[in-house]
Automatic annotation (TrEMBL):
Boundaries of every HTH lysR-type domain copy: 3-60
GO MF annotation, one: DNA-binding transcription factor activity
Record protein name field: LysR family transcriptional regulator
Taxonomic path: Bacteria, Pseudomonadati, Pseudomonadota, Alphaproteobacteria, Hyphomicrobiales
Keyword Transcription annotated: yes
Family: Belongs to the LysR transcriptional regulatory family.
């Protein structure tokens, strides 16, 4: 049985928009037409691709697996269209960026926007492992991450070198010290990103190498939450040096006696590097290096 291309396209649009209404608007078709195309695909194979609850839709496990495939399929179609059309200017388009921090990506986006004001952007923030996962799942066009990878599917450009630093609230015992040895973390409460973050991966490894056992560990989901937790008095925060901002009564503390060097990388899929939007981003970030 030959699979329906219109059915796949309709399925992909709904999965991407998470809504039949939004998908129909994006494809410039009526919602009944789009619904019929998806229903025909489901009935042809005797499967269910979406759970429909009121006006909301959610992918079933089978639908999630199919979405990974259609994302690759339509990404390749976009690349082929761009290649054959020989696009030389970027007068329109939408670039999806995944990053583990907005700090390292905003300058490049600003340059691209100034050169190509017709472009739009969406930025998703997550830990380094999630960011690479989005790229490999075709949920992002490009990414900025601190996680170095040797995966041959991924093209990587080093953006910057950095170092992990600590920071504390003004009433903390370390607040009046410009630096502390890593051994000083014994028994100290620490605020870190969740597992999958390079910050946490590197810092926990260095603590283990030094034989240091800290006190309580508070795990949070974003760097902004690390800052908020430290400001509330939950302990010592650890972040990239470039991400620390003065203010709110917080003091930066250098950590000595351990290799806390880290870096940021701009990455894209090797197979998609010639797409004009992707190429433009990778060129823009390299201007910083």
């Amino acid at each position: 049985m030959a699979i329906s291309s219109s059915g796949l396209a309709a399925f992909h649009a709904v999965a991407q928009a998470e809504s039949f209404t939004k998908a129909a608007r994006a494809r410039n078709v009526s919602q009944p037409t789009l619904s019929a195309q998806v229903r025909a695909l489901e009935e042809a194979y005797g499967v269910r691709l979406f759970d429909r609850v009121g006006r909301s839709v959610k992918l079933t496990p089978l639908g999630q697996s199919l979405f990974v495939i259609t994302a690759r399929l339509f990404a390749a179609e976009d690349e082929a269209e761009a290649l054959l059309a020989g696009v030389r200017t970027l007068s329109r388009g939408h670039l999806r960026i995944a990053a583990d921090s907005a700090t390292h990506v905003m300058p490049a986006l600003g340059r691209i926007r100034d050169r190509h004001p017709g472009l739009t952007f969406s930025l998703s923030i997550g830990n380094s492992s999630d960011v690479l996962g989005q790229l490999l799942d075709y949920a992002a066009d490009v990414a900025v991450t601190a996680k170095q990878t040797s995966d041959p599917r991924i093209r990587s450009v080093r953006l910057s070198a950095d170092r992990l630093v600590g920071f504390v609230r003004g009433d903390h015992a370390f607040a009046d010290r410009s630096s502390v040895p890593i051994e000083a973390f014994v028994g100290q409460d620490v605020v870190l990103r969740e597992r999958g973050s390079v910050t946490r991966e590197v810092f926990e490894l260095r603590l283990a190498e030094a034989g240091v056992r800290p006190g309580h560990l508070l795990e949070v989901q974003t760097r902004e939450a690390v800052r908020d937790a430290v400001a509330t008095g939950f302990g010592i925060g650890v972040i990239f040096g470039a991400e620390f901002r003065d203010g709110e009564g917080l003091a930066r503390v250098e950590i000595t006696g351990a290799d806390l060097a880290v870096a940021e990388y701009a990455v894209c899929l090797e197979e998609r590097r010639r797409i004009p939007l992707v190429r433009s981003f990778m060129e823009a970030v390299q201007e910083e290096t």
